[in-house]
Each structure stands twice: as structure tokens, then as C-alpha cells.
């Protein structure tokens, strides 16, 4: 006899419907799982057999064949335990449920019949809902994240016997729903705020522009100047997340398996700061069974690379494409996954090996060639993708005790939100969200300079020997500055300010 | 070879006559670029390789100004002050002479190859007494300093520590009876220990271009210096008057020593954004210079 049950697997960050077919026949007792299962799926035999026994059902010695269709894609993970167990019990007549084909089962079994949590439940549920499935049985521990999905009945189950009783209409499990509005309203008190930063006026202003236009930024500063402190606070002024964005971020983190149990939906923008020993694969994502890397985990948030000159060169080169494309495709022997990675890239470094090249009090002990060598550690193509570079000087002693009233993150965020709205409106037909994504063609269309601005830029071009790329970057940043001010035209003063954010071209250029 | 190499034997019309006063005058010099400028009026500019940001800027500006008076600047193409001096001339599209401490096959430092291109493009010359295959040895650099000293009518020392190689140039220049100019430094600044010692031995003190030009009759009387004099007589507040009123406020906060952006922003009524854009304008108009670390200084000279 044959029974047909639906389970789910993952492909990248999208769920995928899998047909779990179970056939039980007379013959020599055996148990076979076919359909390209990997080790963790093949091992489910033993878990399922024991879990069924310990849930009080009897499994006679028969010939069991389980097929996971489509049979051509590789299956991995332990989420098939539950559908296989349900399939077997359905087959031997323990379940009487005519609507069983309106169910999807997700879950790993432990030997005593308990259902354990699995990774990637959110994308699985979204996909199942989109395919028109009505009921989804999920592990109890995953209920919060699954409950985010609307228009589908989420059934959180603790044990295999609970599931059977529910299907047999004995003990109906209540539908579970997460209160999304509450999640967004819960306005978590951030323990960091921009108002805590003393001095650093230019850095703060630059980060405001970074947030408003989603520009990439490089901070050059002496040790202890506060680069990391600034970068961490950037998250607090980024524009508010929409529900769709939040869902996409959660999907990635769900697949990566690092969703906190009490937070079914990620409602704040991620801030990722991998250490400089991080490998290229860990940044880009990958592995034998591909997993999203740091750049994807920073999707819609901030990726901060501290001491970028210390990073492995290969690791950094990996990011060149993704920074531009906003997604990364990882190809392995039998699969190819695409992960989104639309992040703001923030990097920091010292101005020279000793760290004090820009300190007016401590004298730098590096030679010009040492500084040049240090600067050359970061490849030109990567630097070309950075719109804003600023210097973060160490603050002076008098500033440490300064007590003047500073702007809070919330106040800055309000301006950022306004600037983003303007950009959204302007680019709604062009498939981009922010000024940083402007292509050369769109720059011509949307970034018109006034007479004086043009003249100034031409002057600067000659004086500092800017390249054409630099020219475009300055215009993009000037566009954001104008947007922050709510000005439709890019004026001369906007261009003048934007020129200040190109210190690498001005003070560190190769001679 | 990158450029066509010419050589001048001692006795050639174009061979720099100044070199003949050297007891160990080379018998032949090799030249890239313009061979006709070696007998023109020139001044040497020397200083430490590992100089301060201020030293570099001063050297560039000084070279540019002197070059504007058709004075050729001679230097050694080393990093730091030397490069800055050549850069100043090149910025002015003027002529400059670089004296190498090795053969043309071994240009040192390599990263200055681009600077050589620009020197030659602008009608300058690169010369050496060494055969093309001679390596750039430490000893050679000390020896070529005598050529720098001999070639020019005077030597300007920008910045030298107590034990700086550029002091050998000064020694040679003293022996050859050339005029010595020294930019003074603070007595607590080790970068100027050597400079200040030379100064105390009786060198001319340099605060601006005029200090140099005044010591040469040819340039002291020429009408060009009138404008310099008038500039000098201008009081500071008059200078400020040139600047448009909306920029003046910011300009006043910037001093002749590095002023940090933080200090400029301090007690300013204007937003950081406005201050930043005004600083760009001031720099573009040539009133201030930005140093590393968002420090600004007034431009002088």
C-alpha cells in the first residue's frame, strides 16, 4: 500500500515542497530511503523506527520503501523525520484523516517521540502557504517563527502522538499565530545611542549620509579613536524596517539557524562584525552544503570589517561582486543557491602601520613607503566601491568631559527616514532603493548639478586629480546630501560637502 | 631604457660650469630630458625623506613660487622633501632638475618613476654621474649631494634631523661658498634639530619666498617682487577682507598651525555640513590647506 505525505526542504533561502512517498509491502523485512538522501536523512530510519515504537505503535517487520520526490535533488537535514513517520503510520492504518494531503509536516524526531526544532522553518512555511497548503505541522519550539506566516493554519506539536491524535480528531491542537504588530511595536530599548558620542562631528554627519543613501564607507583613524563605537551606532539611525524586509532577513537567519528563540521575527537591522581572521567562504557563504555567509547575514543591515588591512586579501576580493549586485550565487556540484546580500559596507583601518599618521600630537614613525605598502593591502577595485571615506581623529582631552546636548539616534533617524522616502519615490520605477545603487545612466538623469556646482567639481577635478569614478561617487553622495535637506536640485554647497568625504583621493593618493 | 640617454663630457658647452668648481668634478654626466637647462640659474631644495606633513607642503609651495620666478629647483628625487620640491615645479609646469644616486637602469626609488615622467614632460632634466648599470648604493647618494650643492646658486634646507643626509649637501655648499637658507623649526621639534644647528651657524632664515629672493640681486630688484612686497605689507585683517563674508567666519578660526575640525566646529552656530562645504570652498580658493586627520592650516608664503 502506498501513502503520500508532504514535507519541506530548503533551497538557498527558499523552501521547497518534497513528496514523501511511503510504500509498505510483504517481503523480506528491510527499510530503504531513496531520492538522494544524505547521511542525516538516511539516519532518520533509526530515529523514526524507535520514535514510532516509543509512541506506542507497533511496526511489524515488513518491507518499507521511502521515496523523497523529486528524486533528482539532494536532500539533507532532519526535517523529514516527521513526514516519514506520519507516512508509515498512515500506511499501516493508524491514521484516519481524509484531508491528510492538505497538511505539510516539518520536524525532527527524538527517540522518545518528541518533536525537535529544525532550521529554516520560516521559508518553508512561506513556500507551503504560497503553494496553497492549508495546514502546517511544525515543531513546538519553532512555533513563533512559523506563526508569522499568515493565511495558513500553523499547528505546533510537541510529540509524534500529539500529531496522530490531532489527525485522528481526538485532541485538536489549536492554531498558533504570532502577534506581528506587537513585535514591531515592542520598540526595544537600544542600549547604544548616537548621543553618547563625544566630538566626532564630521564622522557623525558622514554616518548620517551613509544611512540616508545606503553608501559604503571607510573610516581611517588612529587606534582608540572610536571607529568601532561609531560603526555600532550606525544601526540605530538606519531607516525603519518594513515587514517584507524583516521577513527576508528572518528567512536568512532562520536558514542559518541563528534565530533567537524568543524573537520569531528580526525587527532590527542586523549588524555583523566578523573578525579579521574570517575566511572568504565564511564571508560569502558556502561549504559542502551551502549556508549563507556574513554578507548575507548582514542583508538590509551593516557589515562592519574592523582593521580591513588585516583581512586576508582573497577574503576581501570575494565581496567585490556581491557589493555591486546585492546578491551572491554559490554553485556546488549538484546545486546552485542564491542568497541576497544588500548591505551597507563599513570598513575601518589605521592611517599607517604605527597608527598615528594623522595625529597632530603623537608623531608617526612610518616611512612613506611603509604607508604606501599598508594602503596597498586593500585592493583598488574594492576601494572603488566605497563612496565615502572619512578620517576619524582621536578626540582631544577637553572633549571627553564635554556635556553639551547631543542629538539622539531617534532624531537623526527621522531625517534619514525622510531622505529614504524621497529616494523610494524617485526610483520606484527603476528597481532600486537608494542613491548608492545609481548607475552612470541614472546619475545623468537624476543628478543634475547647478552651474556653480559644476564649476566647483571641475576645479576640484583638476586640483586633486580625481578619476572619473571618484567624480560619480561625489555626485551620488551630493545627491544624498541634497535629499537630506529635502532639496530637489543638487546645489554647490552639497557638492562642496561631498568633496570632503574623499580623503583617500585627497590626502592618501598614490604619487 | 625609458628615455633617450644623452651624455655630456667635461668641456662640452652644455656641461654645467658650476660643477667644474668641484675638486672631484665628474668627467661625464648622463642626462635624461632637457640638456640645455643645466647652466641656468637654479636653487637646490633638500630635506629629510621622512619629513612632516607641514614640511612637505611648505616644500611644494616654496618650489612652486620660486619656479614661478623662473628659478629651476634642483633636488635628489628621494621621497619626502625632495619629491615635494619636484612636485611643486611640476605643478607649476616648470623646469626642475633631479640628481640621481645611481644609474638610469636602477632608478631609486621606483615609485618616483611617474614623477620622472612629469619632470621630463615639463622640460626638466634628470641627471646622474653614474653609468646606467651602476646600482643605487648608499655611498652614491652621499656623493651625489655634492653635485646638488655645486649645481645650484644656493641651498634651501626644509627640514633636517640632527643626523640627516641632507646636511652633507649643506656641508658641500658651505665649502663651495653657496648661500644657505634654512627653514627654522621649534626648538622642541627633533625634526628640526639639524636645521636649527645650521641656522645658528649663520645660515639665512627662511620664512617665505621673499626671504630667499632678497638675497639674490637679480631677483630682489625685479619688478615681480613688488607684488610680493605689497602682499607682505598687507595686514592680516586686510587679507581676511579678500575672503567673501560668509567664509570669513570659518577662516578666522583656522590658524597657522594645524587646527582640527573639531575645534572649528566648536562653538560654531553653523551645522557641521555647512562648515564642511565652506572648508572645501576655502581650500579651492587657496586660502587653506587640509592636512591628514582633518586638520587645516592657513596657507602662507
What report would you give on this structure?
The complex is a heterodimer of chains A (511) and B (301). Chain A has 2 domains: 2-178, Ribosomal Protein S5, domain 2; 194-395, P-loop containing nucleotide triphosphate hydrolases (Rossmann fold). Chain A is built from 23 helices and 18 strands. In chain A, helix 18 crosses helix 21 (468-485), helix 20 runs parallel beside helix 22 (492-499) and helix 21 (468-485) packs across helix 22. By secondary structure, chain A is an alpha/beta fold. Helix content of chain A is 38%, strand content 17%. Chain A is elongated and about 90 Å long. Chain B is α/β, with parallel strands linked by helices. Chain B has 2 domains: 6-224, 3-Layer(aba) Sandwich (Rossmann fold); 234-298, Arc Repressor Mutant, subunit A. Helix content of chain B is 40%, strand content 16%. Chain B contains 13 helices and 12 strands. In chain B, the strands form 2 sheets. Chain B has a 9-stranded mixed sheet with strand order 1-2-6-5-4-3-7-8-9, with helices on both faces. A 3-stranded antiparallel sheet of chain B has the order 10-12-11. In chain B, helix 1 runs parallel beside helix 2. The longest helix of chain B has 16 residues, at 53-68. Chains A and B meet through helix 8, helix 15, helix 20, helix 22 and helix 23 of A and helix 12 and helix 13 of B.
Gist?
The complex is a heterodimer of chains A (511) and B (301). With 511 residues, chain A is an alpha/beta fold.
How is the secondary structure organized here?
The complex is a heterodimer of chains A (511) and B (301).
Chain A: E1 2-11, E2 14-25, E3 30-34, H1 39-42, H2 44-54, E4 63-69, H3 81-91, E5 103-105, E6 108-109, E7 115-116, H4 121-130, E8 135-139, H5 143-146, E9 153-157, H6 160-167, H7 180-185, H8 201-213, E10 217-221, H9 227-234, H10 243-256, E11 271-272, H11 280-284, E12 285-286, E13 291-292, H12 294-297, E14 302-305, H13 313-317, H14 320-325, E15 327-332, E16 335-340, E17 344-349, H15 368-375, H16 380-384, E18 388-392, H17 397-400, H18 409-426, H19 440-446, H20 451-464, H21 468-485, H22 492-499, H23 503-507
Parallel strand pairs in A: 1-5, 3-4, 5-8, 8-9, 10-17, 10-18, 11-14, 14-17
Antiparallel strand pairs in A: 1-2, 2-4, 6-7, 12-13, 15-16
Chain B: E1 6-9, E2 28-33, E3 42-46, H1 53-68, E4 72-75, H2 81-91, E5 96-99, H3 113-121, E6 125-128, H4 138-151, E7 154-157, H5 166-175, E8 179-182, H6 193-200, E9 204-205, H7 209-213, H8 217-220, H9 224-233, H10 236-242, H11 245-253, E10 259-260, H12 261-265, H13 272-284, E11 288-291, E12 295-298
Parallel strand pairs in B: 3-4, 3-7, 4-5, 5-6, 7-8, 8-9
Antiparallel strand pairs in B: 1-2, 2-6, 10-12, 11-12
Helix pairs in contact in B: 1-2, 4-5, 11-13
Amino acid at each position: 500500500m502506498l501513502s503520500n505525505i508532504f514535507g519541506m526542504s530548503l533551497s538557498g533561502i527558499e523552501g521547497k515542497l518534497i513528496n514523501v512517498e511511503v510504500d509498505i509491502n510483504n517481503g523480506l523485512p528491510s527499510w530503504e530511503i531513496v531520492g538522494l538522501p544524505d547521511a542525516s536523512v538516511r539516519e532518520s530510519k533509526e530515529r523514526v523506527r524507535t520514535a514510532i515504537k516509543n509512541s506506542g505503535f507497533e511496526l511489524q517487520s515488513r518491507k518499507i520503501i521511502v521515496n523523497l520526490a523529486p528524486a533528482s535533488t539532494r536532500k539533507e537535514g532532519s526535517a523529514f523525520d516527521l513526514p516519514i513517520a506520519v507516512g508509515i503510520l498512515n500506511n499501516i492504518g493508524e491514521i484516519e484523516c481524509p484531508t491528510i494531503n492538505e497538511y505539510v509536516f516539518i520536524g525532527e524526531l527524538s527517540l522518545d517521540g518528541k518533536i525537535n526544532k529544525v532550521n529554516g522553518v520560516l521559508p518553508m512555511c512561506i513556500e507551503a502557504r504560497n503553494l496553497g497548503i492549508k495546514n502546517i505541522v511544525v515543531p513546538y519550539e519553532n512555533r513563533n517563527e512559523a506563526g508569522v506566516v499568515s493565511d495558513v493554519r500553523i499547528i505546533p506539536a510537541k510529540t509524534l502522538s500529539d500529531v496522530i491524535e490531532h489527525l485522528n480528531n481526538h485532541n485538536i491542537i489549536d492554531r498558533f499565530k504570532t502577534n506581528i504588530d506587537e513585535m514591531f511595536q515592542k520598540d526595544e530599548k537600544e542600549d547604544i545611542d548616537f548621543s553618547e558620542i563625544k566630538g566626532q562631528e564630521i564622522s557623525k554627519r558622514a554616518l548620517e549620509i551613509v544611512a540616508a543613501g545606503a553608501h559604503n564607507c571607510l573610516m581611517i583613524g588612529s587606534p582608540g579613536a572610536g571607529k568601532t563605537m561609531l560603526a555600532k551606532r550606525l544601526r540605530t539611525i538606519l531607516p525603519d524596517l518594513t515587514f517584507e524586509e524583516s521577513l527576508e532577513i528572518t528567512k536568512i537567519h532562520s536558514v542559518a539557524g541563528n534565530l533567537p528563540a524568543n524573537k520569531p521575527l528580526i525587527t532590527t537591522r542586523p549588524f555583523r562584525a566578523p573578525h579579521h581572521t574570517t575566511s572568504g567562504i565564511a564571508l560569502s557563504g558556502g561549504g559542502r552544503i551551502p549556508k549563507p555567509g556574513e554578507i548575507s547575514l548582514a542583508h538590509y543591515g551593516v557589515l562592519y570589517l574592523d582593521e580591513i588591512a588585516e583581512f586576508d586579501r582573497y577574503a576581501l576580493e570575494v565581496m567585490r561582486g556581491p557589493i555591486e549586485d546585492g546578491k551572491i550565487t554559490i554553485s556546488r556540484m549538484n546545486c546552485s543557491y542564491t542568497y541576497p546580500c544588500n548591505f551597507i559596507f563599513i570598513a575601518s583601518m589605521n592611517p599607517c602601520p604605527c597608527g598615528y599618521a594623522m595625529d597632530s600630537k603623537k608623531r608617526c614613525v612610518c616611512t612613506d613607503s611603509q604607508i604606501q605598502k599598508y594602503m596597498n593591502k586593500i585592493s583598488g577595485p574594492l576601494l572603488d566601491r566605497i563612496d565615502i571615506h572619512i578620517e576619524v581623529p582621536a578626540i582631544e582631552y577637553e572633549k571627553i568631559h564635554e556635556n553639551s546636548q547631543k542629538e539622539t539616534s531617534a532624531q537623526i533617524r527621522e531625517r534619514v527616514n525622510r531622505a529614504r522616502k524621497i529616494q523610494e519615490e524617485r526610483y520606484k520605477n527603476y528597481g532600486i532603493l537608494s542613491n548608492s545603487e545609481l548607475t552612470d545612466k541614472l546619475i545623468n538623469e537624476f543628478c543634475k548639478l547647478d552651474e556653480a556646482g559644476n564649476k566647483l567639481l571641475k576645479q576640484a577635478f583638476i586640483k586633486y586629480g580625481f578619476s572619473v569614478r571618484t567624480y560619480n561617487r561625489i555626485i551620488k553622495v551630493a545627491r544624498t546630501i541634497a535629499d537630506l535637506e529635502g532639496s530637489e536640485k543638487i546645489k554647490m554647497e552639497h557638492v562642496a560637502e561631498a568633496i570632503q568625504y574623499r580623503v583617500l583621493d585627497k590626502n592618501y593618493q598614490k604619487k | 631604457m625609458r628615455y633617450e640617454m644623452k651624455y655630456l663630457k667635461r668641456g662640452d658647452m652644455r656641461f654645467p660650469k658650476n660643477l667644474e668648481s668641484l675638486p672631484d668634478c665628474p668627467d661625464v654626466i648622463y642626462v635624461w630630458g632637457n640638456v640645455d637647462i643645466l647652466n641656468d640659474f637654479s636653487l637646490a631644495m633638500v630635506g629629510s625623506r621622512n619629513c612632516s606633513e607641514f614640511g612637505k607642503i611648505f616644500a611644494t609651495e616654496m618650489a612652486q613660487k620660486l619656479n614661478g620666478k623662473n628659478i629651476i629647483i634642483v633636488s635628489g628625487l628621494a621621497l619626502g622633501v625632495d619629491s615635494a620640491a619636484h612636485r611643486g615645479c611640476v605643478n607649476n609646469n616648470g623646469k626642475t632638475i633631479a640628481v640621481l644616486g645611481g644609474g638610469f637602469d636602477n632608478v631609486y626609488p621606483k615609485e618616483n618613476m611617474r614623477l620622472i615622467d612629469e619632470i621630463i614632460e615639463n622640460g626638466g632634466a634628470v641627471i646622474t654621474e653614474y653609468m646606467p648599470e651602476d646600482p643605487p648604493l648608499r655611498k652614491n647618494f652621499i656623493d651625489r649631494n655634492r653635485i646638488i650643492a655645486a649645481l645650484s646658486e644656493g641651498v634651501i634646507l626644509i627640514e633636517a634631523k640632527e643626523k640627516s643626509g641632507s646636511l652633507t649637501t649643506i656641508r658641500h655648499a658651505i665649502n663651495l661658498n653657496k648661500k644657505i637658507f634654512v627653514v627654522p623649526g621649534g626648538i622642541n621639534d627633533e625634526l628640526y634639530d639639524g636645521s636649527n644647528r645650521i641656522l645658528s651657524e649663520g645660515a639665512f632664515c627662511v620664512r617665505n619666498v621673499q626671504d630667499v629672493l632678497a638675497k639674490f640681486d637679480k631677483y630682489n630688484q625685479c619688478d615681480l617682487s613688488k607684488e610680493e612686497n605689497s602682499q607682505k605689507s598687507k595686514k592680516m585683517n586686510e587679507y581676511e577682507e579678500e575672503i567673501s563674508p560668509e567664509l570669513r567666519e570659518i577662516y578666522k578660526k583656522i590658524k597657522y598651525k594645524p587646527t582640527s575640525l573639531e575645534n572649528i566646529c566648536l562653538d560654531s552656530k553653523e551645522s557641521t555640513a555647512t562648515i564642511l562645504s565652506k572648508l572645501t570652498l576655502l581650500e579651492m580658493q587657496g586660502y587653506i590647506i587640509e592636512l591628514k586627520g582633518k586638520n587645516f592650516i592657513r596657507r602662507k608664503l
